[in-house]
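Task card 7
Instruction: Convert sequence to structure tokens.
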Amino acid sequence: MSMNLKNKIVSIGLIPIIITLIGLHFFPNTEMLGVGLLLSLIMLTYNIFRMKDLNFFLLLGTLGIGTCFFLRLFWGYKYVPLNTITPTVEFSLMAFAFIYYTAPELYKDIVSKLGVRVCFSYKFETKIIIILSSIHLLLLYIIKTLNHDWSPEGRFFMINIVPVSIYIICLAINTLGIHLVARIEESRHNIIRIAPLCNGKLLLSKKNIGSDHEWDIPVERNFEGTFDASKKYAIKTAKRTMGTNMQPRFIMQYSEECSCGICNNVLLFILPLKAESDIKLDGKFFSFEEIEKNMNLLNPCIKKELEHLKDAASLWKEFYL
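Output:
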């Protein structure tokens, strides 16, 4: 994911649903449904127009809560009988979740018409909602059919606590999942390569590769961490190693498999310079014409990067210098 996973919880869209389900026990039903619908609409609008994304759980809350709100507002207790508002909201949410899970093309059509993107898959949490809500509603139906005489505490638990718990479970699972992925991302081994460029030329240094001498990018460092942390490390490395305050610019990322079978993540940066004397490193500036004539003298890594470096050097020379 091209984002900081720690700062993004997909299930943030479940919060209006949780607030509504809790509020239905303490406040008048119609007013609380209106508050939940308004909160969902505000967050959904912000998500679409500001974040350019469509959070399905915000859409789920808007549709599910909105359906119950309008049924109660215009038809009173005809379709939503007295003391059944929480199971009705739960059933409405489950129904829309089931539609998304079984007919995802409808959601994709909405996304396409809005011209926004979809950053995540919501199927895992949606499956949890469908399964747990189905079991809960089926149990309520069986208990009602059997005319079970339950205690006030048991009734409160089954009707009010369980639905809220289902969505809190989804929120917790998603949060833990995000942190797990973030931890995996943090443990990734990165190879940071910084290529100095000046006036359309590339600085290369000779390196001992086994028994041979090959020309390669002068700065290469190993770093364990996220992409954002790697960028900060590249800036510090450029300042400390090359004696310049110019900041490296990221241009390319690719994977490289080592002989031990480990796949390294290579992050390529350029370091634009105004003058060749601005940098304190051993090496020589080459034009790309010279480099292309002596490909046999290059390290294999730079051969993968050469076209990107050439384009970056050309653009920097044309638009910046």
